[in-house]
Amino acid sequence: MPEETKIRVPAVEGFFTVDNEPHLIGGRYKKSGSYCFPKNLGGSDPNVSDDELEEVLLSRYGKIWSYTNSAYPPPPPFIASEPYEPIVIAAVELEEEKMVVLGQVANGYSVEDLSIGMSVEVDTGLLYEDSEHCYLTWMWRPLPEGSNKDKK
Amino acid sequence: MEDIAILGVGMHPWGKWGRNFVEYGTFAAKKALEDAQIEWNEIGFISGAITVRCGYPGYVAGSTMARALGFNGTQVASSYAACASGATALSVARGQILSGACDVALVVGADTTPDGFLSPNDGVRTDDTDWLRFHMVGATNPVYFGLHARRRMELYGATSEDFALVKVKNSKHAVFNENARFNKEYALEDVYSSPVVSDPLRLLEICTTSDGGAAVVVSSLDYARSVGVHDPVRISAIALNTPTYPDSLIDLPYLATDSSVAATPNEVGFKESIGKHVYEEASLGPEDVDVAEVYDLASSMELDWYEQLGFCKPGEAESLLRDGSTSIGGRIPVNPSGGLGAFGEAVPAQAIAQVCELNWQLSQKAGKRQVEGARVGITANQGLFGHGSSVLLRR
Prior knowledge:
CATH superfamily of the domain at 4-116 and 209-226 in chain B: Thiolase/Chalcone synthase
Strand order of the largest sheet of chain B: 3-2-4-7-1-8-11-10-9
Number of helices of chain B: 14
Strand content of chain B: 15-25%
Structural class of chain B: alpha/beta
Strand content of chain A: 35-45%
Distance between the termini of chain A: 38 Å
Radius of gyration of chain B: 20 Å
Number of strands of chain A: 9
CATH topology of the domain at 4-116 and 209-226 in chain B: Peroxisomal Thiolase, Chain A, domain 1
Shape of chain B: globular
Helix content of chain A: under 10%
Number of strands of chain B: 11
Strand order of the largest sheet of chain A: 5-6-7-9-8
Oligomer: heterodimer
Helix content of chain B: 25-40%
Number of helices of chain A: 0
Radius of gyration of chain A: 16 Å
Number of domains of chain A: 1
Largest interface: A-B, 49 and 52 residues
CATH architecture of the domain at 4-116 and 209-226 in chain B: 3-Layer(aba) Sandwich
């Protein structure tokens, strides 16, 4: 089946939405207003025993806190492409949530293209595929310089 | 808290020997008993550091080692805290001694490791952050090291040369250590010609996985005196810290930091809190430390530890390295053993090996890598899932 007709599904459900404007799915404690990602693994706040966790969509935009790559294919349970194309990884600071979230950088970027403080948006990208499905993960996509989206 | 005495230490050389981890553990244990001049039958408590890579015998490391040394009815426990397992096992033994449950204990850890990256156990666990970070992101351990190294470059102007110089320094120390896996002295060019693993870090700057074993015999000070040891190297403090919410530094194996929306991050960061704990427990400060063994899982992390343990202010680690302060012969030698860069990590044995090295240093038995006049030493170590450990030794 050609890639464009395959069904696009998250590699694991519940981490991000699959639509034109993908969002990370996080948790928010109703009383404290604090966030966590992923939502089902919580944070480490000792003061939330009586607080209720609600599912929220996290900000789509953030700034690169740091970045690196994996020049060698990561071991399972990562499913590496063959031939392996080094994956690039960024830790991104979300301003509103005041947290840093890890993720791959969208395909086509190398570490040379990145800098700390660069604006990025959440996108989805191919993690691996079989004959019928494209399995997706969330990826950080660098925004063109001067883009007004990073204010949102 | 009262001190305990170190009566003896022992190690099996680190390498890629491919044999049963029990062999390394019992080898190290027998060496430590011999060094202590204590018979196995006199040990009241055996404290094993667990390995999760050698099947069930690894999960019950204490009793596995006890059986290999000969079941004799001694008390036993096994501890797991990732890279901090050895320090946890030591702390359990200290608790037994200081509570009066036993007089003398044997602490032992050993591992046989697979090649390549450390990775999660088989299976699909979508609620396990360690599984998720590999599956969804491909975030190996070196990825986290690379993120922090890049951050250090941004914050303090560290360079690839600074990171490489850590490797060069430690390799010089390791030339004189028969227990280290790599005894070769590396030059800057060697580091630069090794391939990048996780930018900006290269293969020679990232610790590999090794086989090895380490053991320590510890006792109450009274027991030490009763066997004629009046001036032992003492363990004055042990830290087994967890982080404080909100932890704002991304670290393995997590996909995100805590959010700082509802609370401000503590002024003392997680790794800083580890050293702070032992300094307070021992009523000493960084200025009292003569020698340190720190967890250089990557060369850049050694520089972080200089600051986290208070040897210098944030941003000054590169100067401390470059002016020779942290080399043997300098003001505060760090990793005189050669560190993880020269050993490779044998997870449950590593924190115990740090204690072995400092015991040799403080008892002036470190041969050509001796730090002259060393009387106070500190170890630092961090395991994933929020385990930080430190041991403070003095004579």
